[in-house]
Amino acid sequence: MKTRIITGLWAGAIFITVIALGGNAFVSLMGILALIGLSEFTLMRQHKLLAFPFLVTALLVAFPFLLLLLETQVVTDELPFSIEQWLVLGLVLLLFWTVVTKNRFTYEDASFYFVSAVYLVVGFSSFALVRLSEDGLSKVLLILFMIWATDSGAYFTGKAFGKAKLWPSISPNKTIEGAIGGIVSAIVLGIIFVWIDPILPMIEVVILAIVVAVVGQLGDLVQSAYKRQYGVKDSGHLLPGHGGILDRFDSMIAVFTVIWVFNLL
Q1: Which of 60, 212, 82, 66 lies closest to 148, judged by CA?
Q2: How many CB atoms lie within 10 A of CB 227?
Q3: Which of 63, 64, 219, 232 is the most exposed place for a label (fewest CB within 10 A)?
């Protein structure tokens, strides 16, 4: 517990500081976290980090964040390919590698790397784009506080009242009562936040809180599902007492993806 608290304090201080700075510092952090997440996926699958598939996929992941760092649409327009074309090129290279290795690197492996790349790029770049938008700091803080309120509310409500299992085959400790408590906690936190900093109408923040709470808990279940598939307790060991980057950002990846793709802010 002591290790968990100490890690939470220093990691949280760094994270909040970079969020406050915004701009290139935050985009760079998101790119670094996405690459660390890719390394965690790769190691969970028991593949080597310096092998061709990982290096190709790392380039796929890094490229969109490089474009964000350049901070101009002109640069993107002048490139001979779009981000979508870049991702497709990476997929083709991964598929070619199945031939070069005589199917020791399989179609399933290629799919694993490509899906991992899209998951990480969309999730962390959406996080960055929300921060770079107008009133980005307030928006990011609102969403993060809702996510944290959901986690805390679900935990304590589940402990106190939880009986009906939510999804026992994936996460045996989660309960329906806890999930509802998480949603209620997110709504209450959202109302308090916009009462202090009225960046959204009250009805919109209630709807947003429900979306954040539901999607965040689903993102957590996704993380539990693939860890169970690979037989690991934590995605990594970068954060002592907390696991890896994927362990800490599972809900955020899902929430910011949905918020940015569907323009909910």
Answers
A1: 212
A2: 21
A3: 232
